[in-house]
Amino acid sequence: MQVEVDMFSGRLNPHWELTVPEFQEFARRLQSLSAQKGEGFVNAGLGYRGLIVRESWEEVEGEPDIVICHGFVVAKLQGKSQLFTDRNRALEKWLIQTGEGRLDDVLYDQINKLAEPT
User: Fold this and answer.
1) Which pLDDT value is given to residue 63?
2) What pLDDT is stored for residue 64 in this prediction?
């Protein structure tokens, strides 16, 4: 699985691959989230727009598999988007921490600060 930080326009977003143990932990954490009623949304605008998790770095048509941003997770399951609550942005923060040592240090620190619970 690949984690992409959705933050740039016009240039490649930073990204990294999860190890097998990290993927297993990600799946466990994702399954523990509380589902919400309604369909999910994707954060738009400039700057940090959250994390995109997909199976590989290949170009994907349509919506990405999972978007995590500002306390919400939108997961595409069986062709429908389902919304989950990411309490205290714990999943988002944990995923960002998996990028430590794989991203430029200055960029990592900047992204890490953006994921602080508000």
Assistant:
1) 54
2) 61
